[in-house]
Amino acid sequence: MNKKQVRLRRARKTRAKIAELKAVRLTVFRSNAHIYAQIISGCGSKVLAAASSVEQDVRAQLKNGGNKQAAELVGKLIAERAKSAGLESVSFDRSGFLYHGRVKALAEAAREGGLKF
User: Cys-Cys link to 71, which of 42, 63, 105, 111 (CB 3.0-4.6 A)?
Assistant: First the structure.
């Protein structure tokens, strides 16, 4: 098994549990250059809100999209967009990534922005 397969195996377990609960989930994906966050409906078919370090207004504020500062900005942005969509409580889906570094920074910024998970 390679690194990606191991991460996807970890992701499957959390997604199965979240699907069982039919909860709205905050999904995070990180690449070397950027970080992305989406809020997906309980049925899993609809994206309710999204934010990423690729967006023009976010890129204007950042020098690099693949660091903790970018993750914090995306976390605050996704929390704002979730609030405007009428969501306060979500389940955190880290997509198999370990909870440290950029993933942790995004989660903490989203919590500060008012999301509960």
Answer: 105
Instruction: Give the per-residue pLDDT at 1.
Output: 84
pLDDT tens per residue across span 44-71 = 899 999 999 999 999 999 999 999 999 9
Tokens representing 5?
A: 């397969």
DSSP state of 58: H
The DSSP letter of residue 116 is: B
Q: Is the pTM of this model over 0.85?
A: yes
Q: List the domains of the chain with CATH numbers.
A: 3-112 (3.30.420.100)
Which secondary structure element, helix H or strand E, spans residue 111, and what is its range? Answer: helix 102-112
Helix then strand then coil, in percent of the chain rounded to 5, is 45, 20, 35
Residue 67, CA distances (Å) to 79, 93, 108 in order: 19, 19, 15
pLDDT at position 61 is 94
**Burial class, 69, CB count within 10 angstroms (exposed 0-12 / middle 13-18 / buried 19+):** middle
